[in-house]
Amino acid sequence: MARHLQVYTHDGLRVTFEPARCIHAATCVRHLPAVFDAQARPWIRPDAATPEEIIAIVQRCPSGALKAELDGTPHDLTRADVEVAVERHGPLVVRGPVTLVDEATGATVVEDRRMVLCRCGQSAKKPFCDGAHRRVHFRDPA
After folding, report:
1. What is the reported pTM?
2. Domain boundaries, position 22
């Protein structure tokens, strides 16, 4: 079920999208629709805004599914500490340098600075959230 990395380039800007990590928060689509249009093909048009505008939106991607590099330099969140936040009625949002390890095998699942982890148990992309909490009307315990 894993889908491969999608790569979009323009004038030294490289935007990548990893579908298996996306939780469909639509932050990119809402804030920069000229570049990110889920109905268009290709759905990412890196020539439709400045690299700085695109990088700013990519950095807001909660799951880390979107990444950006400019002239070979990655532009990602730079925090040194780790923060884990519980989204009300939603997933765990992790920010900071984190290594996610498979408990059974000890293998590294992913090393990243952003990830969103399923809390409702219904994600088809476990341990990552796929937005299923909205579909199943997941609610935090009182």
Report:
1. 0.78
2. 6-75
